[in-house]
Design brief:
The complex is a heterodimer of chains A (about 110) and B (about 110). With about 110 residues, chain A is mainly β. Helices cover about 0% and strands about 50% of the residues of chain A. In chain A, strand 5 and strand 6 form a beta hairpin. In chain B, a hairpin with a 7-residue loop joins strand 9 and strand 10. Classes of the chains: A mainly beta (about 110), B mainly beta (about 110).
Chain lengths: ~110, ~110
């Protein structure tokens, strides 16, 4: 019963590098989202998807890219990492009108 | 867009006492209000939720109340235990169909043994 799986758990990047944060869910959920969590700011929505092939921007989308080629996977791409992207990233999935299940998070540091 | 404010940011209570965390939201069209608990190093986990057609919901020691007129909702934890120590987040969902949650800034609850 894996639920939502995020990889990697920790990552250090240099400014300007690119990388992909992976997210996979095995619950056949239509809806998937990416949030970032910063101290004192709660969780802020980066991008979300209502189904395979459909994505849209959230509150803080700049510097991030997403795609949803399958129901199970929703990777988040950092195009050119900046120190301001140092954060903890969470992926979530849910059915329509349902409970959102979160992954364990990826702690990213950009130096 | 929706804006959710959460108070207090930190809360310490004696074991066995009650804890109350309050949230307000800005958009009267919001109709789903979940509460999440986040333990250290883990992702948030839903503990209780309430929809706009209900004023109160209970689950054992946890209850949530909703006042749609005032646009605020609260989490009540009774008979607190050490394992209740965590960060709690409220959230509001503006629009069913895209599952976009707007979160409060969190409350760090510490239970003093």
């Amino acid at each position: 019963n894996a639920g939502v799986t995020q990889t990697p758990k920790f990552q250090v990047l240099k400014t300007g590098q690119s990388m992909t944060l992976q997210c996979a869910q095995d619950m056949n959920h239509e809806y998937m989202s990416w949030y970032r969590q910063d101290p004192g700011m709660g969780l802020r929505l980066i991008h979300y998807s209502v189904g395979a092939g459909i994505t849209d921007q959230g509150e803080v989308p700049n510097g991030y890219n997403v795609s949803r080629s399958t129901t199970e996977d929703f990777p988040l791409r950092l195009l050119s990492a900046a120190p301001s992207q140092t954060s903890v990233y969470f992926c979530a999935s849910s059915y329509e009108y349902g409970e959102a299940f979160f992954g364990q998070g990826t702690r990213l540091t950009v130096v | 867009g929706e804006n959710v404010e959460q108070h207090p940011s930190t809360l310490s209570v004696q074991e066995g006492d009650s804890a109350v965390i309050k949230c307000t939201y800005s958009d009267s069209a919001s109709n789903y209000f979940p509460w999440y608990k986040q333990e250290l190093g883990k992702g948030p986990q839903l503990i209780i939720d309430i929809r706009s057609n209900v004023g109160e919901k209970k689950d054992q020691r946890i209850a949530v109340t909703l006042n749609k007129t005032a646009k605020h909702f609260s989490l009540h934890i009774t008979e607190t235990q050490p394992e209740d120590s965590a960060v709690y987040f409220c959230a509001a969902m503006l629009d069913f169909g895209n599952e976009k949650l707007t979160f409060g800034t969190g409350t760090r609850l510490t239970i003093i043994p």
